[in-house]
Amino acid sequence: MKHFIKLTAALFTLIALSGCWDAKEIERLSFARGLAIDETSDHQYKLTYQNLLPQSENSQASGRPAFVNVTSRGDTILEAVSDISLKDPPVYSDHLKVLIFSDKLLADQNILQMMNHFIRDDELRRSSYIFAARGKASDILTEPTPNQQLPMPAEKLIELTNNGGYNGKILKPLRIGRASVYCHNKLSFLIQAVVNKNGKTVYDGAAIIKNGKYNRLAGFLSAYETQSLNWLMGTIEGGVLPAEIEQRPITFEIKKSKSNITPHLKNGKLSFHVAVKTKGLLSENQSTAEDSFDNRYLDRLERIFEKKLKSDVKEVIAKLQGQYEVDPVFFSESVRIHYPDYWKKVKHHWDKTFSEAAFDYDISLQIVNFGMMGR
């Protein structure tokens, strides 16, 4: 009996040491970092995965690229994912951080339906970033070259999300989980737009996804218009505001900014009061008449910058209200909080209500420093 017990214990020990039941052989997996999704001429999905390649000292010395692009097509996204295994190792999505949709696909199809597989997939993290390509999404994930020196495009997209403190034209990163919440709550929203310029990936404004049963691309905002919206919503962390004095360039550099949006309801008419307060530097002044040691001169510059910013903000709001009739920056949330009964009446046709709302602005810019040169 003791011999039988020892034999049984040894058998279970061998089973336990044989490895995990769900283990995957690393050599047979493709570790995806980026995925571009396009629509073909025959209305199939075209997937372009950008996968990491295992690197060794020998592969680095030989100039072997650190990544490879793999493409596949299918009538559904999952079919295209599955068919990769017909010619390449199966895709492992645990490390997938970037999803890029082409503008054509976003205009033709519901983004929530396209995200369906990725939201259901328990391997894919809901923290993966979403981008909208101007043109083909596959153009963003450029192919590796021999002796590749440039960073992996999918990795570069992730790194650029950290540059908001240097440039106000960058949106806060949008993750797939948050985009799903917006769609389910019938909210319009913005996606960071990207474009391939001369072989390099560049952040280029924002794509507007309009709510409703379609959740499709309504159009794009330029990079400069995106900065104006960031300023308006209080999400701007850095960047510059160019203007002119006596036909000579001047530049205000943002250091600290906050905004406050207050809705008002009077006689059934909705309006918004937007207050923006910003402190920053006079970082460039090409005027030959500069005298920044004089407070009156600085006051004059502040008024110029305030007028410029007010004009920029009014222009982008007019575009959202007039051209697109859409609220992608959640003015609706302040109405829901301040006027819950009114919100219940207008929430099902909020975009139309938003497009008819009045706006007034209180813009304040303060120059706290003008650097090492004042004349």
UniProtKB/TrEMBL annotation:
<protein>
    <submittedName>
        <fullName>Spore gernimation protein GerA</fullName>
    </submittedName>
</protein>
<dbReference type="GO" id="GO:0009847">
    <property type="term" value="P:spore germination"/>
</dbReference>
<keyword id="KW-0564">Palmitate</keyword>
<keyword id="KW-0732">Signal</keyword>
<feature type="domain" description="Spore germination GerAC-like C-terminal">
    <location>
        <begin position="204"/>
        <end position="371"/>
    </location>
</feature>
<dbReference type="InterPro" id="IPR038501">
    <property type="entry name" value="Spore_GerAC_C_sf"/>
</dbReference>
<dbReference type="InterPro" id="IPR057336">
    <property type="entry name" value="GerAC_N"/>
</dbReference>
<dbReference type="GO" id="GO:0016020">
    <property type="term" value="C:membrane"/>
</dbReference>
<dbReference type="Pfam" id="PF05504">
    <property type="entry name" value="Spore_GerAC"/>
</dbReference>
<comment type="similarity">
    <text>Belongs to the GerABKC lipoprotein family.</text>
</comment>
<keyword id="KW-0449">Lipoprotein</keyword>
<dbReference type="Pfam" id="PF25198">
    <property type="entry name" value="Spore_GerAC_N"/>
</dbReference>
<keyword id="KW-0472">Membrane</keyword>
<feature type="domain" description="Spore germination protein N-terminal">
    <location>
        <begin position="22"/>
        <end position="171"/>
    </location>
</feature>
<keyword id="KW-0309">Germination</keyword>
<dbReference type="InterPro" id="IPR008844">
    <property type="entry name" value="Spore_GerAC-like"/>
</dbReference>
<dbReference type="InterPro" id="IPR046953">
    <property type="entry name" value="Spore_GerAC-like_C"/>
</dbReference>
